[in-house]
Protein backbone atom coordinates (compact mmCIF):
# COMPACT_ATOMS: atom_id res chain seq x y z
CA UNK A 1 0.00 0.00 0.00
CA UNK A 2 1.45 3.36 -1.03
CA UNK A 3 2.24 6.08 1.47
CA UNK A 4 0.53 9.38 0.67
CA UNK A 5 2.59 12.43 -0.27
CA UNK A 6 3.78 14.22 2.85
CA UNK A 7 1.84 17.49 3.14
CA UNK A 8 3.73 18.82 6.15
CA UNK A 9 5.94 21.86 5.70
CA UNK A 10 9.67 21.39 5.33
CA UNK A 11 10.21 22.91 8.75
CA UNK A 12 7.81 20.42 10.34
CA UNK A 13 9.81 17.52 8.89
CA UNK A 14 13.12 18.46 10.51
CA UNK A 15 13.84 18.08 14.19
CA UNK A 16 16.87 18.54 16.41
CA UNK A 17 18.45 15.89 18.61
CA UNK A 18 19.63 17.24 21.96
CA UNK A 19 21.46 15.16 24.53
CA UNK A 20 20.27 15.20 28.14
CA UNK A 21 23.23 16.68 30.03
CA UNK A 22 21.16 18.03 32.92
CA UNK A 23 17.42 18.64 33.20
CA UNK A 24 17.82 22.41 33.63
CA UNK A 25 20.13 22.93 30.66
CA UNK A 26 17.93 20.69 28.53
CA UNK A 27 14.77 22.62 29.39
CA UNK A 28 16.48 25.97 28.74
CA UNK A 29 17.72 24.68 25.38
CA UNK A 30 14.26 23.45 24.32
CA UNK A 31 12.74 26.85 25.18
CA UNK A 32 15.32 28.59 22.96
CA UNK A 33 14.86 26.06 20.18
CA UNK A 34 11.08 26.56 20.14
CA UNK A 35 11.52 30.33 20.04
CA UNK A 36 13.73 29.92 16.96
CA UNK A 37 10.88 28.27 15.06
CA UNK A 38 11.91 24.64 15.27
CA UNK A 39 8.84 22.37 15.31
CA UNK A 40 10.21 19.20 16.90
CA UNK A 41 12.91 18.24 19.39
CA UNK A 42 14.28 14.79 20.12
CA UNK A 43 16.07 14.00 23.35
CA UNK A 44 18.73 11.35 23.55
CA UNK A 45 19.50 9.86 26.93
CA UNK A 46 21.80 6.85 27.31
CA UNK A 47 21.03 4.73 30.37
CA UNK A 48 23.78 6.39 32.40
CA UNK A 49 22.07 9.80 32.05
CA UNK A 50 19.16 11.08 34.15
CA UNK A 51 15.55 10.15 33.37
CA UNK A 52 14.29 11.54 30.07
CA UNK A 53 10.49 11.79 30.46
CA UNK A 54 10.81 13.72 33.70
CA UNK A 55 12.96 16.33 31.95
CA UNK A 56 10.57 16.45 28.97
CA UNK A 57 7.64 17.05 31.32
CA UNK A 58 9.44 20.08 32.73
CA UNK A 59 10.12 21.27 29.16
CA UNK A 60 6.45 20.86 28.27
CA UNK A 61 5.52 23.24 31.09
CA UNK A 62 7.76 26.00 29.70
CA UNK A 63 6.90 25.62 26.02
CA UNK A 64 3.66 25.83 24.06
CA UNK A 65 3.73 23.80 20.86
CA UNK A 66 7.06 22.16 20.00
CA UNK A 67 6.80 18.39 19.53
CA UNK A 68 8.70 16.46 22.22
CA UNK A 69 10.30 13.17 21.16
CA UNK A 70 12.23 10.47 23.00
CA UNK A 71 15.17 9.11 21.05
CA UNK A 72 15.13 6.58 22.39
CA UNK A 73 13.79 5.00 25.57
CA UNK A 74 15.38 1.62 26.29
CA UNK A 75 12.53 -0.85 26.73
CA UNK A 76 14.48 -3.15 29.04
CA UNK A 77 14.54 -0.35 31.63
CA UNK A 78 10.78 -0.11 32.25
CA UNK A 79 7.67 -2.23 32.04
CA UNK A 80 5.24 -1.19 29.26
CA UNK A 81 2.52 -0.44 31.83
CA UNK A 82 4.85 2.01 33.59
CA UNK A 83 5.84 3.63 30.29
CA UNK A 84 2.17 4.00 29.33
CA UNK A 85 1.46 5.71 32.64
CA UNK A 86 4.39 8.09 32.17
CA UNK A 87 3.50 8.86 28.56
CA UNK A 88 -0.18 9.46 29.28
CA UNK A 89 0.72 11.76 32.17
CA UNK A 90 2.89 13.90 29.90
CA UNK A 91 0.22 13.80 27.19
CA UNK A 92 -2.35 15.15 29.68
CA UNK A 93 -0.08 18.13 30.36
CA UNK A 94 0.90 18.74 26.71
CA UNK A 95 -1.77 17.26 24.46
CA UNK A 96 -0.62 16.11 21.04
CA UNK A 97 3.03 16.95 21.55
CA UNK A 98 4.68 13.72 22.69
CA UNK A 99 6.26 11.34 20.17
CA UNK A 100 7.40 8.16 21.87
CA UNK A 101 10.55 6.60 20.42
CA UNK A 102 11.53 3.26 21.94
CA UNK A 103 14.15 0.62 21.19
CA UNK A 104 15.97 -2.45 22.41
CA UNK A 105 19.35 -0.68 22.66
CA UNK A 106 22.52 -2.78 22.66
CA UNK A 107 22.08 -6.24 24.21
CA UNK A 108 25.29 -5.64 26.17
CA UNK A 109 23.73 -2.64 27.92
CA UNK A 110 20.58 -4.52 28.86
CA UNK A 111 22.69 -7.22 30.47
CA UNK A 112 25.33 -5.09 32.19
CA UNK A 113 23.10 -2.29 33.50
CA UNK A 114 19.71 -3.89 34.08
CA UNK A 115 20.66 -7.55 34.40
CA UNK A 116 18.30 -8.38 31.53
CA UNK A 117 19.29 -10.74 28.75
CA UNK A 118 16.80 -11.33 25.93
CA UNK A 119 17.62 -13.94 23.31
CA UNK A 120 15.17 -12.53 20.75
CA UNK A 121 15.12 -8.72 21.12
CA UNK A 122 12.76 -8.09 18.19
CA UNK A 123 10.24 -10.62 19.51
CA UNK A 124 10.43 -8.86 22.86
CA UNK A 125 9.97 -5.49 21.12
CA UNK A 126 6.95 -6.76 19.15
CA UNK A 127 5.19 -7.91 22.32
CA UNK A 128 6.19 -4.75 24.17
CA UNK A 129 4.60 -2.61 21.44
CA UNK A 130 1.47 -4.77 21.52
CA UNK A 131 1.00 -4.18 25.25
CA UNK A 132 1.98 -0.51 25.13
CA UNK A 133 -0.19 0.26 22.09
CA UNK A 134 -3.26 -1.26 23.72
CA UNK A 135 -2.75 0.81 26.85
CA UNK A 136 -2.15 4.06 24.98
CA UNK A 137 -5.07 3.70 22.60
CA UNK A 138 -7.73 2.13 24.83
CA UNK A 139 -6.44 2.66 28.36
CA UNK A 140 -6.53 -1.05 29.10
CA UNK A 141 -4.75 -4.29 28.28
CA UNK A 142 -5.52 -7.94 28.91
CA UNK A 143 -2.45 -9.79 27.76
CA UNK A 144 -0.73 -13.10 28.42
CA UNK A 145 2.34 -13.65 26.31
CA UNK A 146 5.85 -14.96 26.29
CA UNK A 147 7.37 -11.90 27.97
CA UNK A 148 4.46 -10.07 29.60
CA UNK A 149 1.35 -11.04 31.52
CA UNK A 150 -0.75 -8.08 32.52
CA UNK A 151 -4.38 -7.18 33.13
CA UNK A 152 -4.92 -3.49 33.88
CA UNK A 153 -7.16 -0.53 33.12
CA UNK A 154 -5.85 3.04 33.28
CA UNK A 155 -7.77 6.27 33.73
CA UNK A 156 -6.77 7.75 30.38
CA UNK A 157 -5.93 6.94 26.78
CA UNK A 158 -4.52 8.92 23.85
CA UNK A 159 -3.24 8.57 20.30
CA UNK A 160 0.47 8.99 21.03
CA UNK A 161 2.74 8.21 18.05
CA UNK A 162 4.88 5.17 18.80
CA UNK A 163 8.13 4.90 16.84
CA UNK A 164 10.82 2.24 17.11
CA UNK A 165 14.56 2.54 16.62
CA UNK A 166 15.93 0.39 13.81
CA UNK A 167 19.26 -0.66 12.34
CA UNK A 168 18.89 -3.96 10.48
CA UNK A 169 16.35 -4.94 7.79
CA UNK A 170 14.33 -7.09 10.22
CA UNK A 171 13.89 -4.13 12.57
CA UNK A 172 12.78 -1.89 9.70
CA UNK A 173 10.39 -4.60 8.55
CA UNK A 174 8.92 -4.70 12.06
CA UNK A 175 8.58 -0.92 12.11
CA UNK A 176 6.69 -1.04 8.82
CA UNK A 177 4.42 -3.67 10.27
CA UNK A 178 3.54 -2.35 13.74
CA UNK A 179 4.95 1.13 14.46
CA UNK A 180 4.05 4.73 13.64
CA UNK A 181 7.54 5.28 12.29
CA UNK A 182 11.16 4.15 12.30
CA UNK A 183 14.01 6.11 13.88
CA UNK A 184 17.30 5.35 12.20
CA UNK A 185 20.50 5.42 14.21
CA UNK A 186 23.67 6.59 12.43
CA UNK A 187 22.67 4.87 9.20
CA UNK A 188 24.11 6.09 5.87
CA UNK A 189 21.50 7.69 3.62
CA UNK A 190 22.02 5.19 0.74
CA UNK A 191 21.41 2.35 3.20
CA UNK A 192 18.13 3.94 4.29
CA UNK A 193 16.95 4.38 0.71
CA UNK A 194 18.13 1.00 -0.64
CA UNK A 195 17.68 -1.32 2.36
CA UNK A 196 15.60 0.22 5.13
CA UNK A 197 12.78 1.63 3.02
CA UNK A 198 12.16 -1.59 1.05
CA UNK A 199 12.09 -3.53 4.33
CA UNK A 200 9.55 -1.10 5.76
CA UNK A 201 7.40 -1.39 2.64
CA UNK A 202 7.44 -5.17 2.94
CA UNK A 203 6.43 -4.99 6.59
CA UNK A 204 3.65 -2.52 5.87
CA UNK A 205 2.37 -4.61 2.97
CA UNK A 206 2.33 -7.73 5.16
CA UNK A 207 0.19 -5.83 7.68
CA UNK A 208 -2.06 -4.32 5.01
CA UNK A 209 -1.25 -0.73 5.94
CA UNK A 210 0.55 2.28 4.43
CA UNK A 211 4.26 2.50 5.11
CA UNK A 212 4.84 4.64 8.20
CA UNK A 213 7.42 7.46 8.12
CA UNK A 214 11.15 6.86 8.26
CA UNK A 215 13.37 9.34 10.07
CA UNK A 216 17.00 9.77 9.03
CA UNK A 217 19.59 10.65 11.65
CA UNK A 218 21.73 13.41 10.13
CA UNK A 219 24.94 14.73 11.70
CA UNK A 220 26.28 18.18 10.80
CA UNK A 221 29.50 20.07 11.52
CA UNK A 222 29.84 23.81 11.01
CA UNK A 223 33.20 23.94 9.30
CA UNK A 224 34.34 24.25 5.70
CA UNK A 225 37.62 22.51 6.51
CA UNK A 226 37.30 18.91 5.32
CA UNK A 227 40.14 17.68 7.54
CA UNK A 228 38.58 19.16 10.67
CA UNK A 229 35.14 17.82 9.76
CA UNK A 230 36.44 14.31 9.15
CA UNK A 231 38.46 14.30 12.37
CA UNK A 232 35.27 15.18 14.28
CA UNK A 233 33.35 12.55 12.32
CA UNK A 234 35.91 9.86 13.17
CA UNK A 235 35.59 10.65 16.87
CA UNK A 236 31.82 10.31 16.61
CA UNK A 237 31.44 7.30 14.34
CA UNK A 238 34.70 5.44 14.90
CA UNK A 239 33.65 4.42 18.40
CA UNK A 240 30.14 3.45 17.29
CA UNK A 241 31.55 1.23 14.55
CA UNK A 242 33.12 -1.00 17.21
CA UNK A 243 29.70 -1.81 18.67
CA UNK A 244 28.59 -5.12 17.08
CA UNK A 245 25.11 -4.07 15.98
CA UNK A 246 26.40 -0.85 14.37
CA UNK A 247 29.25 -2.73 12.71
CA UNK A 248 26.86 -5.28 11.22
CA UNK A 249 24.74 -2.48 9.81
CA UNK A 250 27.76 -0.81 8.21
CA UNK A 251 28.79 -4.11 6.64
CA UNK A 252 25.29 -4.46 5.18
CA UNK A 253 25.62 -0.89 3.90
CA UNK A 254 28.56 -1.96 1.74
CA UNK A 255 31.57 -0.83 3.74
CA UNK A 256 34.53 -3.16 4.04
CA UNK A 257 35.87 -4.17 7.47
CA UNK A 258 38.94 -2.03 6.79
CA UNK A 259 36.84 1.03 5.94
CA UNK A 260 34.89 0.58 9.15
CA UNK A 261 37.95 -0.07 11.32
CA UNK A 262 39.83 2.97 10.01
CA UNK A 263 36.74 5.21 9.64
CA UNK A 264 37.84 5.90 6.06
CA UNK A 265 37.00 9.06 4.16
CA UNK A 266 34.27 7.24 2.21
CA UNK A 267 32.81 5.96 5.47
CA UNK A 268 32.70 9.42 7.08
CA UNK A 269 31.40 11.30 4.04
CA UNK A 270 28.34 9.00 4.03
CA UNK A 271 27.56 9.90 7.64
CA UNK A 272 28.39 13.60 7.97
CA UNK A 273 27.31 16.89 6.40
CA UNK A 274 29.71 19.78 6.86
CA UNK A 275 30.02 23.35 5.63
CA UNK A 276 28.40 26.73 6.22
CA UNK A 277 24.71 27.51 6.64
CA UNK A 278 24.05 27.56 2.91
CA UNK A 279 25.66 24.18 2.28
CA UNK A 280 23.91 22.52 5.20
CA UNK A 281 20.51 23.99 4.27
CA UNK A 282 20.95 22.79 0.67
CA UNK A 283 21.77 19.30 1.95
CA UNK A 284 18.59 19.27 4.06
CA UNK A 285 16.47 20.28 1.08
CA UNK A 286 18.05 17.58 -1.08
CA UNK A 287 17.34 14.91 1.54
CA UNK A 288 13.75 16.09 2.00
CA UNK A 289 13.27 15.71 -1.75
CA UNK A 290 13.94 11.97 -1.51
CA UNK A 291 11.69 9.32 -0.01
CA UNK A 292 12.96 10.13 3.47
CA UNK A 293 10.07 11.52 5.51
CA UNK A 294 11.87 13.30 8.33
CA UNK A 295 15.33 14.35 9.49
CA UNK A 296 16.58 14.25 13.06
CA UNK A 297 19.67 16.45 13.14
CA UNK A 298 22.62 16.28 15.49
CA UNK A 299 25.31 18.97 15.76
CA UNK A 300 28.85 17.65 16.10
CA UNK A 301 30.64 20.43 17.94
CA UNK A 302 33.62 22.06 16.23
CA UNK A 303 34.44 24.74 18.82
CA UNK A 304 31.40 26.40 20.43
CA UNK A 305 28.46 24.06 21.18
CA UNK A 306 25.93 26.76 22.14
CA UNK A 307 26.71 28.95 19.11
CA UNK A 308 26.65 26.02 16.72
CA UNK A 309 23.34 24.81 18.12
CA UNK A 310 21.93 28.29 17.55
CA UNK A 311 23.19 28.25 13.96
CA UNK A 312 21.35 24.99 13.37
CA UNK A 313 18.11 26.25 14.95
CA UNK A 314 18.16 29.22 12.57
CA UNK A 315 18.58 26.96 9.53
CA UNK A 316 15.68 24.76 10.57
CA UNK A 317 13.49 27.64 11.72
CA UNK A 318 13.96 29.37 8.36
CA UNK A 319 13.14 26.37 6.19
CA UNK A 320 9.70 27.86 5.69
CA UNK A 321 6.15 26.65 5.54
CA UNK A 322 6.17 25.38 1.96
CA UNK A 323 5.68 21.67 1.41
CA UNK A 324 8.19 19.51 -0.42
CA UNK A 325 7.89 19.13 -4.17
CA UNK A 326 9.70 15.81 -3.89
CA UNK A 327 8.67 12.50 -5.35
CA UNK A 328 5.57 10.71 -4.00
CA UNK A 329 6.49 8.35 -1.19
CA UNK A 330 5.88 4.66 -1.65
Secondary-structure topology with pairs:
Elements: E1 14-19, H1 23-35, E2 40-44, H2 52-62, E3 67-70, E4 73-74, H3 80-93, E5 98-103, H4 107-114, H5 121-138, E6 140-144, E7 149-153, E8 162-166, H6 169-178, E9 182-184, H7 189-207, E10 214-221, H8 226-240, H9 244-252, H10 257-262, H11 265-269, E11 272-274, H12 277-288, E12 294-299, H13 305-317
Parallel strand pairs: 1-2, 1-12, 2-3, 3-5, 4-5, 5-8, 8-9, 9-10, 10-11, 10-12
Antiparallel strand pairs: 6-7
Helix pairs in contact: 1-2, 2-3, 3-5, 5-6, 6-7
Organism: Reticulibacter mediterranei
GO molecular function: oxidoreductase activity, acting on paired donors, with incorporation or reduction of molecular oxygen
Protein name: LLM class F420-dependent oxidoreductase
Rg is: 19 Å
Which regions are unreliable across 5 or more consecutive residues at pLDDT < 50? 325-330
Helix-strand category: alpha/beta
Per DSSP, the total helix count is 13
Mean pLDDT value:
93
Helix content: 40-55%
What amount of the residues lies in strands? 15-25%
Tell me the distance between the termini: 8 Å
Shape: globular
* SSE series: EHEHEEHEHHEEEHEHEHHHHEHEH
Q: Give a short account of the largest sheet.
A: 8 strands, parallel, barrel
Number of strands: 12
Strand arrangement within the widest β-sheet reads 1-2-3-5-8-9-10-12
Q: Quick recap of the structure?
A:
With 330 residues, the chain is α/β, with parallel strands linked by helices. It has helices at 23-35, 52-62, 80-93, 107-114, 121-138, 169-178, 189-207, 226-240, 244-252, 257-262, 265-269, 277-288, 305-317; strands spanning 14-19, 40-44, 67-70, 73-74, 98-103, 140-144, 149-153, 162-166, 182-184, 214-221, 272-274, 294-299. Helix content is 46%, strand content 18%.
